[in-house]
Amino acid sequence: MKLARFDDNRIGIVKDDQIFDVTDIVDGRPSEWPPVGMLRLIASFADYRPRLEAATRGKEQGAQQRQTAHAHSLAQQSHRLSRQLS
């Protein structure tokens, strides 16, 4: 599962060429400073994982699917980086 920060500190899950906005699910606050929402998500990942997986299947209320040029570009960059690290 790939995590992303996008659109002014929103939190998302990258899957294929889509970003699923899970900011509301993980109680992210885009205007929070410093931006620690992603750190809280990582610290409590085991608790959030079932809801995040449901969000990428479109079964979790509060997740928004975004398929944009930005999301597509981010997904491509992520795939390239994954290949480089393998």
Task: List its salient traits.
4 strands; globular; alpha+beta; 42% helix; 3 helices; 86 residues
Task: Give the SSE layout.
Elements: E1 2-6, E2 10-15, E3 18-21, H1 37-43, H2 45-56, E4 64-66, H3 69-85
Antiparallel strand pairs: 1-2, 2-3, 3-4
* Tally of distinct domains: 1
- How does the major sheet shape up? 4 strands, antiparallel
The helix tally amounts to 3
Strand order of the largest sheet: 1-2-3-4
Ranges where pLDDT stays below 50 over 5 or more residues in a row are none
Overall residue-averaged pLDDT value: 77
Elements, N to C (H/E): EEEHHEH
Q: Give the distance, in angstroms, between the N- and C-terminal Cα atoms.
A: 16 Å
> Given the C-alpha coordinates, what overall shape results?
globular
Strand segment count: 4
Sheet/helix structural class: alpha+beta
Question: How would you characterize this protein structure?
Answer:
There is one protein chain. With about 90 residues, this protein is of the alpha+beta class. The protein has one domain (about 1-85). About 40% of the residues lie in helices and about 20% in strands. It contains three helices and four strands, in the order βββααβα. Strands 1-2-3-4 form a four-stranded antiparallel sheet, with helices on both faces. β1 and β2 (about 10-15) form a beta hairpin. The longest helix is centred in the C-terminal third of the chain and has 17 residues, at about 70-85. The chain is globular and about 30 Å long. The chain starts with a strand and ends with a helix. The model has no long low-confidence stretch (mean pLDDT about 75).
